[in-house]
Each structure stands twice: as structure tokens, then as C-alpha cells.
Amino acid sequence: MTMLLSSVAEHVYWLARYIERAENTARIILAHNNLMLDMPRRIAIGWDPLVYVMGSMDTFRERYEDDGERNVVRFLVSDRNNPNCITCSLEQARENLRTTRAIVPRSAWETLSDLNDFASGNAASGIGRRGRYAYMKRIIDTCQLLAGKLSGTMSHDMSYEFLRMGRNMERADMTSRVIDVRATNLLPKQTDELWPFVDIQWKSVLDSLVAYQMYRRHVHLSVRGKEALRFLLQDEEFPRSLHYCLSEVGCCLHRLPGNESPLRVLGRAQRMVSEVKTGNIVKAGLNDFINALQLVHTELHDQLVATYFQVAQETA
Amino acid sequence: MAIRWKDYSGGESYDELITPSGHARKAARRAVRYISSLSDEEWCERRDAAELAMHVMGITFTVYRKESGIDHIWPFDIIPRIISAREWRTTETGLIQRTRALNMFIADLYGEQRIIRDKVFPGELLAKSVNFRKQCIGVRTPLDIWAHICGSDLVRDRDGKLYVLEDNLRVPSGVSYMLENRLVMKRVFPELFEDVSILPVDGYPTRLFDTLASLSPRPADYPTVVVLTPGIYNSAYFEHSYLAQQMGAELVSGTDLVVKDDDCVYLRTVGGLERVDVIYRRVDDQFLDPEVFHADSILGVRGLMRAWRAGNVAIANAPGAGVADDKVVYAYVPAMIKYYLDEQPVLPNVETYLCMDDGQREYVLANLDKLVVKPANESGGYGMLVGPFASKAERRKFADLIKADPRNYIAQPTLALSTTPTLCDGHIEPRHIDLRPFILSGESSHVTRGGLTRVALQKGSLVVNSSQGGGSKDTWIVDTENP
């Protein structure tokens, strides 16, 4: 008997999204941290791009006047006004897991509980410079451990498809956000002064998505805007490229009932990604392209909600 | 531990394991010999092992506190409470007899009300009952059973006899602790289980599922059974999810269910709507259906009562079953047994004074310092007066309460609840206990082998409730005749 409650599917989906979100946030902080150490003092990139990546600039402005390092990192790690901060994401993940304990292996619950306690108990050391690396690394590693436990010990039934979908929807979202904020800032009018540092900035973009090593392995070129963009959007094998994430969502949908509407929206997103000429949008229109892509992504999420999580809600 | 059983004394209370002369009772003989053979160090090891096992197994009850998370471990004592199989057989017969009568009583109240016509049960009591549901009048339930799961609290008085203290017919809880306590004990004392013939308890989830399945309105190979929970902040959420898991049933909350125009109940699943046959509800009557009861309830399902009345879904326990879960109604159970079954009650009630009766109220008011006063419809040990331990001001307060609303109060003599050896700070001391067996009624009846023993961990305390400093123990029914 394979029956899956809508509410359980929804919890599992969000569980995966929040775990992935915590991991991704930790990673972009680390990547940015490294970049800042390499950049000369006179060139101010600042820390605010990270807030833009998370799409939380309005909330941030309400809370802080100064967008310096400490405020930004605190905002991303443990500010309760930012629902996307690492500690809030992990807490949300735990609440979602609490109600799905029947289908998720017990040891995953224990790992997530521990990670939660660690993240909120040691937030101060994650915000400070000295302990930042160790803190972020522990978050990233434990999230990966969780993904491994779930993949290795949970039945790969319908509920697992929702876990996979959540993970890949969140990854696709993060990849498009990083491209949006970080890459568009790099592309326009390169001043002579900045020029020597463009390479390391592109490297940092790839680093935020753990893509650098795989990029070098498969592209064989030094890091350049057009190639990096193509890799992040269209690579067929890298698990965080948009192409790859969307295909994963497609695989999941094919194993679920009533998938026509979501598949239709997904198809549109996939066509957008595969048909875009990265050489052209690098010159102009990257912003528009990413905005359009984000809209389809949101539409796909809404379609999953309507199809699977809000069954017969009209009577409520 | 060098226990000197001669120095161990439960005072005037009956001790479950040890006789007044300091010897082990027959069913407990092997266990006591074994207990005496362990050193202090070994005791600590076993206790730590039990604690660890509880932690790993995630056995918790929920107390909602924002700062500290919501899961707490319920104290568990590793010395078992032991009852002989011979005594248990009689107890089982008595419990089944009692629940049969109670079920006939509930069905009668919502049906012809013969018992009132025949003047065995006063009709005015019904008019003032807070758990009588007018919405249930005229409904016929499958097999005419209303209370499918009953948890009766038994206590042993100084005379060594078991008495029924109350019957919980609404949403009795605790059975998951009974099951998990046994698992912990098997891990901690495996050698004892080889030596002693202890009746197993782990068949309960299967029996529960069979009982629920027997109520299905659609004869099918595999009816869809769900456990309806109020959610994670309910103190028994652990049990709800545990039972659902053990039965292989879905754990649902109100928002997972929907009643369509055909008056059938459906589950919202990713594949669309799936019909539900049986709901094991752990939500109080009043919150079941906003269409009929509390309009602002978000725990229930709109239209659920319609579906139930139409016979399209079975609900266990049936809405309205709580009418017999009332301490005034309790006093009439022996009369019910005679009236419906024409039998003598096997298990006695505790002597009970009804404050609504003028003569009995006079007696209660004059003897408040000797009696326990309880409101008719509270559970969890709340709102009661334990006369001998109460202050003058408290007794005065209760005298006023009784005069203002006599129907709502009963009084009972203060029982000397039995004691059993319990590990307290490295010593073994007597602590007071009660026992909650669970009785399943469906196509056939089933009583748990023992039940949940609750223990008052404070010295001298008689309050065993988990919300008020109680703990629990494993309960062994030991067969000495067929080892």
C-alpha cells in the first residue's frame, strides 16, 4: 500500500529545502569570506551582496544601518528576524521532521537535533572571524551527512521523491540567485583597477556553489564569465547546475501521480535554460533572463503546492 | 545490594512484592532473589542503561515549554511490579464484565433509556452531565459498542484487594509506555526474562488494529484506519505517533481529512482523495467537528459527525462515550452490571459518596478531613482535595464548592494505595502505585497483560500522574503454575 498524505509530502519537501538552505547559506558565507581576504583593501566589494543573494535586503535595512561584515554575518547566521538564517532554517527543518518521524529514519532525527543544538548554541563563534570557518564547515558537513543518511536508509518511495524535489528546487533557486547577484555585478564596465581581480571573483562565484573543482575538470579553461555561466546553467553532469536540478525534479515528477500540470511548467523552465545563449546574455540581459527564470521557478513551486499539498482544499 | 527486607516497610499499606514479615510474595520470589543479589554498583549500571535506552528510543511525553524544547523523558523505575497470573485472570474477567456493562449503558442512554425508565439510574443526572452529547441520540454504532478502548485505574487497598478507581472512556493514554517499558526491561534484565515466566504484552498494537478494523463500514481485506491526533503539542503525541507506527496506520491531524458531499471521510494524499474507514481519535469530543461542537476548533474535521451518523465511518471511541466517564456515573457501575448482565460485579468499586444526595453530602461535609473529594469530570488528578493532607482553608474552600454545585462532586475514603519496592537515590524504598490496564472491545474483547503501573516517586505521595511528579514501572504478570 503506497499512500502518501499530502501534509507528510509537504513536510518532507520543506525538510529538504531547509536543510539545503542552511547548507547553501553557510557555503556562500565561506566563499565570500575567502574572497574578501584576497581582495585589496581599496576595492570595496562589501558584504551586502550576500544579503541580496538571500533576497532579504528590506528586512536587513529595517534592522541595521551599517551593512558591515559583522551585521551581515549575524543576519545570515542567527538573526531571528531573518527567517532564512541558518539557525532558523535548521529549526524549521526540525519542526518539519518532527511530524514525519514515522517515515524518516530515527538516526536522521538525532543528527538534525544535534546540529540544531550546535548551530544555535555556537552562533556567536560562527559570527566572529576566528571560529567562522569551523562553524560553517560543521554546518555544511552535517547537512551532507543528513543527505547521506536519508539517501542510504530511507525507503526510496514516494516520500523520498518529495525529499529529492525539495532539495533540487532549493538548489536551483540558490544557483540562480548567486548568478543573479554575484555575476551581474562582475560583468558590466570592468574598471582597470578591478580587472586583475575578476578571475578570483568568478572563482568565488563558482566556490559559493562548490562548482570550481568540477568546472576545472570539465571545462579545461581558466575561469571566464561566459564559460562559468554556461557551466552553472547548462552543464548536464554537475549536480548544482540549473539543468541538472531541473532534470532531477523531472525524474521525481515522473514517479508521482497527477503530474501533468507540474511537468508542463517544468518543461518551460527546462527549455529556457537549455536554449539561452550564454555568450549573448553575458553582454546584456542576464538580469532579465534570471528574473524570468525565477518567475518560472516560483510558478513550478506553486504548481507542486496546488497539485500535491492542497488536495481538495477548496472545501476548507 | 544488601537489602534487608525485614527493615523494608510500606507502613500500613499493602506491599506488592514483600510480605509484612519481610518475605517475597510467591509470584515475586525469583525476581526478589535476583534483585537482592545485585550490588549497588550493578544497580547504578542497570539504571543508567535503562535511561540510555529510553533516550535512544526517544520515549518522551510532551510538556510545552518554549525555552527548553518540548520533549521530556518520563521517569522510569527499573524494579518491576509483579502480579500473579492467577489473580490477573480474575481481574481480566472483572474488567471485561465492567466494560460490557458500560458499553450497554452508553448505548442505552443514547437509545431507549431503559435504565432510567426502570429507575435504576436517575434521569436528572443525565440532564446535568457535561459529557452527554445530544448530537448522539438515536445513533447506532457498529456492534453497539461505544467505548472500544477503555483504560480503568485499579488500586489495591490495605486489605490487599484490587478496586476500580475510575474508568477512562474518552481518550485514555499510557499504553505506549507499557509497551516501551517492557522493551527497556528486556534490554536491561535479559537474564531475568529467561528465568521467570512473564506474560508478553507486545501483542497490543495488533489487537488494537484488529479491534478497529472490525468496526469498518466497508467489509474489505484491508480497511483504511487512521489515528487522529491534536498535534505535536499534545502531551500524548508520542503515543499517537507510536501507535500509528506500530499498527501501520496513518497518523493524521484534522487538516488531513475532508468530508465530501457524499458524507464520506477522505484523506488528502498526493494521489488525490482516499476514503477512510475507521478513525482512532485522540481528540476530545468537543473538538471533533466544528459544524456540531466548538465552531472555532481547528483540530477537527467539518462534517465528521454527519459522516459518522450516516454510518460511513467508524470513530473509536465513539463521540459521546465519555458520558460514562464521570465520577458520579461511576458510583452506579455495580448497579449497571446487575441490571444489564444480571451478574455480581467481580471487581469492587471504591466506596463513593455522592454529594447530590442530602444525607451523603452531610456525611462528606462532616468528614472532609478523612475523605478525598473529586470533581465529577476532571482527569489528570486536577481539582481534587486530599482531606488528611489539606489545610483548613482548602477544606473550607471545598465545602463551599460542594454546597454550590453538589452534582459535580463525589467523595471517597482515603485509600492506603499499595506500595512496591522502588529505587530512590541508590536505596530501595516503598512507593505508592496504581495500575491502568487497557480493555479493547470489538468483535472480541481483550485485556492487556497487566497494564501501566504508575508510581508516585515522592516519599509518601499518593499522586501518580505524569503531570505531577509520577513515574512508571514495567508490570509483570508472572505465571508460577505453568513456568
Give the overall form of chain A: globular
* Overall pLDDT of chain A: 89
Cα shape of chain B: globular
**Helical run tally of chain A:** 16
- Strands in their spatial order, largest beta sheet of chain B: 3-22-21-18-17
Tell me the radius of gyration of chain B: 23 Å
CATH class of the domain at 353-413 in chain B: Alpha Beta
Largest sheet of chain A: none
Rg of chain A computed from alpha carbons, rounded to a whole number of angstroms:
20 Å
Number of strands of chain A: 0
* Oligomeric status: heterodimer
N- to C-terminal distance of chain A: 27 Å
Uncertain parts of chain A: none
List keywords for this structure.
heterodimer, A: 316 residues, mainly alpha, B: 483 residues, alpha+beta, Dna Ligase, domain 1, four-stranded antiparallel β-sheet
Describe what you observe in this structure.
The complex is a heterodimer of chains A (316) and B (483). By secondary structure, chain A is mainly α. Chain A has one domain. Chain A contains 16 helices and no strands. Chain A has helices at residues 6-38, 48-53, 57-63, 69-77, 86-98, 106-121, 123-127, 129-153, 158-186, 198-208, 212-219, 225-234, 242-254, 260-275, 278-283, 286-309. In chain A, helix 14 runs antiparallel to helix 16. The longest helix of chain A is centred in the N-terminal third of the chain and has 33 residues, at 6-38. Chain B has 483 residues and is of the alpha+beta class. Chain B is 30% helix and 23% strand. Chain B has a five-stranded mixed β-sheet. A four-stranded antiparallel β-sheet of chain B has the order 5-4-19-20. The longest helix of chain B has 25 residues, at 85-109. The chains are: A mainly alpha (316), B alpha+beta (483). Chain A binds chain B through residues 1, 3-7, 9, 98-99, 101-102, 106, 109, 158, 162, 256-258, 308, 311-312, 315-316, and chain B through 58, 222, 232, 241, 244-245, 250-253, 255-256, 258, 260, 266-274, 302.
